[in-house]
Amino acid sequence: MTGLHHRFRGGFHEVAGELHVDGVPLRAIAEQVGTPVYVYSRASFETRFRALEAALAPRAAMLCYAVKANSNLGVLRVFAELGAGFDIVSGGELQRVVSAGGDPSRVVFSGVGKTTEEIDFALKLGIACFNVESAPELARIADRAALLGRVAQIAVRVNPDVDAGTHPYISTGLKRNKFGVPVGDAKALYREVARHPALAVHGIACHIGSQIASPAPLLEALASLLRLLDDLAAEGIAIPRLDLGGGFGVSYRDEPEFDVAAYGRALNAALGTRDIALMFEPGRYLVADGGVLLTRVEYLKPGATAEAPSFAIVDAAMNDLIRPALYQAWHRIVAVTAPAADTPARTWQIVGPICESGDFLANDRTLALAPGDLLAVHSAGAYGMVQASNYNTRARSAEVLVEGRTFRVVRRRETIRDLLRLELEE
Known about the structure:
By secondary structure, this protein is an alpha/beta fold. Helix content is about 30%, strand content about 25%. It contains 12 helices and 21 strands.
């Protein structure tokens, strides 16, 4: 792993020994914008979206991009222009969607802790649906809708107690998780929705986790939803649509890519002749591979002995990309340009400047490195910048969107003045 001969995805490819995204060399972006910097490929986002649409055909499915995966306004505009809906989990995300030109009537509001202010905002904008996660939340939405003279569209998020087989921090469909309500409790909530004049049944929702490797747990959850749907129909409560969530896994290392085509076929077979609309909430699947984090080597600290670790200290840190420290997540890291022929390869710990021993981007990577080298951290388009912080009073990175042979900054790099301005006395 000393050169550029790797498996690239998301529009990233080698040209004459140098890594490019679509028609732009990454080196040119780093030289103009600086590092660290997140770089996204518009073409990759569009390709993934259209491929997922095709895999879920012939049934028309509304794809609601999960804003939490990457909430940059430039990225949201791409999906709005593709006709996507949006899955949000906060009032702030709703404001982002509207600011990016998204249609509120194609927004689904998920999340366990919706505040009164957030509910009012969503009701006034006329969102498509609230995915309700508890009885108290349903009561609050009913009260606010009645007060505002609106009818709130409701889907109860059902927790089917299905193991998605993923990291425990991103599992959401087990009974020990905070999300959703048990299938047995959902019927009572639907009865309340059916009788309340300020509420209307929009559908049934389910989301069992992220980084799901196989369609099997999703189909198991679907079977649970269909049983609930039939039970409600027997009571005269019609369910017009199913929101089947997202969580389709991507390949960070050597995991198999989630087979959306196989899932689409199995889904159509399971639904048979049922005439029901479908919604999905993909996030990571659409954007992860379409982004990299560019970072530059500041210092090299070779180990004093063969057994001692060698550290490559880069200018990105856990405040820029926390996934490795938080989830022990693995990201492919490569040099943007091929190393000099006389640069020896060594096993490096790729670490940042944060004053924490847990500040690392990767461990035990064999690379030929020199100070000043530019590195690309792959599959960083999802849950990268959205989880960034200002720990150690570090300014957050810039973000760049590549469109063919051009690129533009879609979020400027923060300055120290930006960080201090809410604390300075006027």
